[in-house]
Design brief:
This protein is mainly α. It contains twelve helices and no strands. Helix 1 runs parallel beside helix 11 (229-242) and helix 5 (91-101) crosses helix 7 (136-157). The longest helix has 27 residues, at 248-274. Residues 271-275 have low confidence and may be disordered.
Length: 275
Amino acid sequence: MIISALSFSIMAAIVKATPHTVAVKAFSRQIFGCIFVLLIILINNYRILPLKKNIIKLVLRCLFGTVGIYLYFYSIDNLLLANASMLTRLSPFFVMLFAFLILKEPINSLNWFIIVPIIIGCGFIIKPNSDLFNSASIFAILSACSGALAYIMIKSIGKGESAYTIIFWFTLISSVAYFLIAVEELLVLDNIEYLPLIMIGVFGVIGQIGLTLSYQLSKASYVAPYSYFYIIFTGLLGYYIWEEIPDMISIVGYCLIIISYYYLVRLDKKNILDN
């Protein structure tokens, strides 16, 4: 999981350093993932077409995921790398809320209490009433919301659909969408300009492989906290490359969110053991 977090952090740094439009960078990220998953499907002879009953949910998963990645890359371009990383990692909390609202899954009363410091932490990072407020922070949170809705769609699809089928169609549809937006810019790039775009795709795939293997080989409750190494790595990269230093109020916000997430994971683990 740490390797996955490091790979995604390097990808984020390259995204920030590359002076191309968001659509071009997002296309680079997704097309490599699409090719990689397609190879897995062909080698293992997995089913590529989704079940008819899941098509609408799969389309919604693709829609939310496509919007989420676009907003994620936009926030990286326009915020401190650490702030963008922290805010876009709020998906687990939104998953809990949307699961309650959409799937009617109950929420433990203590979980509701944990949401309070998360909201406070977000306020410390965003600073809505301050001159330091950056509207890109809102897009970062919307990215987390879109990601959460994508996860909810995956959950509603259930285990009847292959994970590789879901990932393939998501990466394919999002790649087509980004390509249509960025086609003019992609066609006029010099050969040397493709190098950082290729690196975005490569590190994105490495991160995805590491993430998938981590969840396959270990329990989710043990793996999930390690995803916050991504925040540490992006913060360090932001400091050493761009000399980005989050203010003390933002750091307090990070701590509130990370500690809340830690206790949320512990509560979920306890509930699983009790059941």
